[in-house]
Structures are given as structure tokens and as C-alpha cells.
Amino acid sequence: MENNDMKTIQWFPGHMAKTRRAISANLKLVDAIVEIIDARTPLSSRNPEIDSLTSSKPRIVLLNKCDLADSNATSVWVNYFKKENVAALAVDCKSGRGLNKLMPTLKSTVLKALMEKREKNGMTGAPIRLMILGIPNVGKSSLINRLAGGKRAKVEDRPGVTRVKQWVRLKDNTEMLDMPGVLWPKFEDQSAAVRLAFTGAISDDILDIETLAMKLLVYLAENYPDSLKERYKVEFDKSDDGLALLEKVGKKRGMIVSGGEINIERAAITVLDEFRSGKLGQITLEFLPKE
């Protein structure tokens, strides 16, 4: 995914540096890490610092928003993590899909040694404490609210809502520590940054919306052309660049301003909104590299 015409994306506000310190300080309080990533961008939505920050604790990875991702690609990614000896589940935190497997998997696999030790020592009533980690807008609060059976954590469709840690007690003797979303100091791979921007993990305020929408349309035309045609009811040529694709969308939707010109900004906002809401179909932005 080329990125030469977009400014370098950096996003590391002060509260995220504070979160990194809080993760290290609170590790001793939990039994395991629940890392939530976006099923559409499994690698790009993983904070590379979490591996080193939490290496002392067992972990399970939840590929959230699986309802928005290509199901075949998600299955491949789940198997990838399992081959890396990391427990992984495809879930949708808003609807609860797949979450019924979370606690059984934790107890039988991730925390098996701990559970056996507690049983041997007569500590079966001790609560299981979990730290919930992930980048902004990946679904941490949605997970907690779903498992808690009510609205315990603030949820908004924009990055950086959770700013302080929150302990939430569940009915099954489980306690979850919800940490603020944290990105990393520098995006070494700008393609990863662009993928995160597509999904809304990075605030739109620091990006060129029109360029971002053009890049997304080029990707969709190459990888999901049928979804693009079905949604916008137009024919796309292989020679179309991002601007041509965006103009076709704008024209089809009647986004015309005075003088007969197409309102490119409005078309760009529409494309990004419809992708993020799943109206373009189940789409994965990142596939497992071929060996």
C-alpha cells in the first residue's frame, strides 16, 4: 500500500505515554492479558510494545469486529496465532458473538496451570483478574459492557475515549481491568498507519480525508471489486486511480456543487463512513503474508 502522497502519520498524545507506565505498574495485579485487535487489520492493530510490556503474563488475543472482516481471512489469522502458541478467538464484542468461548478458553488453556495450582491449594474461589489491552477504538469497552451485562465502560465511535483505568467485576468471579487505548511512539510502517486510519483507530483530525478515501478505494478496487460495484452501482476500470474512483462515487450519489463539480470531500467522508459501518461488506485490510 503506497503512501508517498500522504504526510507521515504520527499519533502519540501524552496520555498514551502514561498508559504504558500504568500497564507495567498494574501487571502484578492480574493473572492474564486479554489483547483485543481488529480482525480487519490483525497485525497493524497490534501494539508491538505490548509483547515486551506484558511478557511475564499469559495472554489471549481476541480478533474483534469479525462481523466486519472477511471470514475466510479471519480463520487464517486465528490459525496463525495458534501456531505462534497464542490462544486466539474471533469475536464481535458488540453482539457478543464468540465471547461464550472466552472464559472456557482462559480456564482450560491460557490459565490452566494457575487453575490447577489454585485447586490443589484449595483456592478455587479466588477471582480471575484480567487486564484488557488494545489500541484506541478497537472494542475494549464494548467487551467489558457485553460481559458485564450492562453499560459499565464509556463507549464512543472515536479513538481515545477511555483515559483512566477501570476495574469491572463480572458475575462469574472475574475482574477486568480496562486500560486506556495505547498506540506506539512511532509508526515504522506507514502502511500499518494507513490501515489504522481506514478503520478510525487514528483520529481523522490529523489526516487528509480525501487522500485516505482515495487509498481505500484503490485497495477495494484491487481486492474487493464486487463489493465496491454492488454498493455504488458503478463500473470501475483497472486504470482508475483514487481520484477517478472517488469522483465516480460522488457523481453516482449526486454530490454535485455549483459549476457541476463533484464534492470530493463529501464523497470521501461517505466512503470512509460506509466502510467503517460495514455497508461495503465484510472486508479485511491485511492478509497473512505468504511464506
Characterise the protein shown here.
The chain has helices spanning 14-26, 48-53, 71-83, 102-110, 112-120, 140-148, 190-199, 209-223, 225-232, 242-252, 264-276; strands at residues 32-38, 59-64, 87-90, 128-133, 166-169, 174-178. The chain has 291 residues and is of the alpha/beta class. Strand 1 (32-38), helix 2 (48-53) and strand 2 (59-64) form a beta-alpha-beta unit. Helix 8 packs across helix 9 and helix 8 packs across helix 10 (242-252).
Topology:
Elements: H1 14-26, E1 32-38, H2 48-53, E2 59-64, H3 71-83, E3 87-90, H4 102-110, H5 112-120, E4 128-133, H6 140-148, E5 166-169, E6 174-178, H7 190-199, H8 209-223, H9 225-232, H10 242-252, H11 264-276
Parallel strand pairs: 1-2, 1-4, 2-3, 4-6
Antiparallel strand pairs: 5-6
Helix pairs in contact: 8-9, 8-10, 8-11, 10-11
Write a concise synopsis of the structure shown.
The protein is of the alpha/beta class and about 290 residues long. It contains eleven helices and six strands.
Number of strands: 6
> What value does the Rg take, in angstroms?
21 Å
Principal-axis shape equals elongated
Largest sheet: 6 strands, mixed
Individual helix count: 11
Report the sheet-strand fraction.
5-15%
Strand order of the largest sheet: 3-2-1-4-6-5
**Spans of at least 5 consecutive residues with low confidence:** 154-163
Order of helices and strands: HEHEHEHHEHEEHHHHH
Category by helix and strand content? alpha/beta
Mean pLDDT: 86
Distance between the termini: 19 Å
- Amount of helix: 25-40%
